[in-house]
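Can't paste images in this forum, so I'm doing it all in text. The chain is below; anyone willing to post the predicted structure tokens underneath?
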Amino acid sequence: MVNASNKLLEVKEVHKVFGKGQSETKALKGVTFDVLPGEFLGIMGASGSGKTTLLNVIATMLKPTSGQILLEGQNISSFKGGQLAAYRGNHIGYLFQQFELIDNLTVKENIVLPLAIHGIHVSAQEQQLSELVNRFDIEELLNKFPSQLSGGQKQRVAAARALISNPSIVLADEPTGALDTKNAKVLMEKLSEHNQLHRSTILTVTHDANAASYCSRILFIQDGVIFHELRRNVLGESQEAFYERIVMVMAQLAGGSSNVL
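Text version of the structure:
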């Protein structure tokens, strides 16, 4: 269950240091923020800003040097071994830039793989499977193999896989990075639609202002710290207007200024 404060994810004073002595690099310097249930949160920053490290720490692929990461009130940064693997598999969905589909499995087998790994019979999720393949327009691909798919199709299959087990949060690492403009737009529209219909919580790292404009909130990270935040006024602000504000902040980031609107 979500904790009493209604925060799904809490990142508290997270530091991440690589190396020691003269080779020490401080990738994260006390990052703190919360994610509420149903948010579509974007994290943006230049290469080397710490955004990918931050995502990997939240994903439990890296352990923070200090600080806490709480998901549904549990300090997942302290989990180890089987406890970590079980929690990661049952509560976190992943969407990778390079799809990470398994070549010798069909599209359907790739999508339901998270269920199979955790012993959940596919029949228990047939409705979810049907809805997802419908939403991501991949019904006709179920018996094909990844080698037979385009990049856009592969990423829509990967998105369905990330959502099939109804995870507490989906973590997306540059989900449009390997896609052309048209397929990137389709993917983000589908993710946004799913987010709005099911209140699925999605956290995405992206460098793409177009992709970020589908989010409800953007955190900008620079030199390992949260630099700025934008919230979209969903009722009164168009996606195009939000995109323009994102571009403005990105321009300020590139110039090293902290005077943003």
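The longest helix spans residues 181-198. The chain has one domain: 9-255.
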